[in-house]
């Protein structure tokens, strides 16, 4: 049984990544050290999120972040924890966070060969009502020894070497890909360890769930409108799809990854580039979807082929089951 294996085999995330990295003889364990610091950040945020209501951490910090959203104390706390953990790992040179207007350039003595882009607490507007929220991250390698610049993170998602998210919900689950499939680890609070519970996650080729904020329907373009119409009123006699929309990307993407279906945050008249951020929402989730056998599309191209020009750039995104995304690609191709 999984429980027995858990008790005796203890495949922790650190052990799992060490196994993965041992396949690369030249690896010096830098990635494993980087990941262990990301895991530390996730454990801290998980504990803080679970105590938020009690520790009066909810409520406004009185500041607004560059997205113009009111920052909640947990946002600020999570961001501080991740920045400190990543800098202290000594394995990073450039950090981009949803919470910080400018990139963070690590001081020379602590620089390493990775650049990390992350949203420390995505979906944070849901904190006060107890809806699942999460941390999303993507990892690039620094391919030079000169002074690091934002150019080192303004790279297409297809150059990411790893990506993942940690969902703080009924359980705390870290989903990770280092380019060889997608694996899910569940935090065992009694051990303080993430244990491998979902090895080699594959998304179903087709799903019967669509996930979009229908409240934006009046602003959608033709292909998105046609696609959603098709989900609700299928012409070929197939059953209508179910709508599931949490409004927290990590929760919506996690359900899509496990159950199949499609998640859409389209462009609309109000936001011509959609709402979700390329570096630390679109790219990591697209990386995971492709690694799980699904795909991710921007309405114009493969999401991972986007080349961002600004660190907080947005993009429309359609991601999930391979066949479902194919359908919306066909509608955009007709346009
Ligand atoms: P809307 C949360 O604020 C977030 O950034 C994502 O987590 C989520 O998918 C999206 O915005 C929800 O946006 O416009 O539907 O509320």
From TrEMBL:
Recorded family membership: Belongs to the FBPase class 1 family.
Keyword Magnesium carried by entry: yes
GO BP field: fructose 1,6-bisphosphate metabolic process; fructose 6-phosphate metabolic process; fructose metabolic process; gluconeogenesis; photosynthesis; sucrose biosynthetic process
Pfam family, one: FBPase_C
Organism this protein belongs to: Arabidopsis suecica
Cell inner membrane keyword on record: no
GO terms, molecular function: fructose 1,6-bisphosphate 1-phosphatase activity; metal ion binding
Enzyme class label: hydrolase
Alphabetized CDD domains for the sequence: FBPase
Name of protein: Fructose-1,6-bisphosphatase, cytosolic
GO cellular component, one term: cytosol
Major subcellular site: cytoplasm
Chain segments annotated as transmembrane: none
Subcellular localization(s) per the UniProt record: Cytoplasm
Catalytic activity of the protein: beta-D-fructose 1,6-bisphosphate + H2O = beta-D-fructose 6-phosphate + phosphate
Cofactor(s) annotated in UniProt: Mg(2+)
Domain Fructose-1-6-bisphosphatase class 1 C-terminal: 203-332
Domain Fructose-1-6-bisphosphatase class I N-terminal residues, every copy: 11-199
Enzyme Commission identifier(s): 3.1.3.11
